What we know:
The protein is mostly helical. It has helices at residues 8-32, 35-39, 43-54, 66-81, 85-88, 93-105, 115-120, 124-128, 133-146, 174-193, 200-214, 221-228, 242-245.
Amino acid sequence: xxxxxxxxxxxxxxxxxxxxxxxxxxxxxxxxxxxxxxxxxxxxxxxxxxxxxxxxxxxxxxxxxxxxxxxxxxxxxxxxxxxxxxxxxxxxxxxxxxxxxxxxxxxxxxxxxxxxxxxxxxxxxxxxxxxxxxxxxxxxxxxxxxxxxxxxxxxxxxxxxxxxxxxxxxxxxxxxxxxxxxxxxxxxxxxxxxxxxxxxxxxxxxxxxxxxxxxxxxxxxxxxxxxxxxxxxxxxxxxxxxxxxxxxxxx
Length: 251
């Protein structure tokens, strides 16, 4: 016979456990990699942001839960750290943070249905987001947390060269900070949208074209970063920058 459904107290314990693991694993990674210091992120504020991200996951979802998000985050980190040091160094701290935040929040709000089901059932989300339906939902949830004035990135004092002025703040640094925040939000959104497996063929094709186009400049790590982290990059995929330095990985 199937196991009895969990009791409310057990569900609350599971939620608390998943939230704690998600927060500690994400916070610990970002702190260890020096991203919090580099971007001027207050520790308590960042923990609050992570708690809000964790709330976007259903703890009774057997797969798309906060533990899955933490697993994807550390897998992304492992792939990134596997790149040659010269390539890793070409990425700014804000770009690395965008990668980690996108990985941590990439399934926020998932409710155990796929895009095809939502389309065929006439779900309102499929009408709102005709393409990459769930991915747009996930991105919207994450960007909402990042824009939260109480815990979001407006308090990151070193983001994009801005001081502590905040968005629309006084002084000459406010515009730079605002631009840095916009760039990070745009990158997080693009990374999450790129997790739509329906786009795999498109992204892989752009990736292969980029490999051929940049093969002659394999050691130009600045160009590698520019191609990956610009709006026209061949796809927000973690292994992309390995191609010029490790051509066999392009196959």
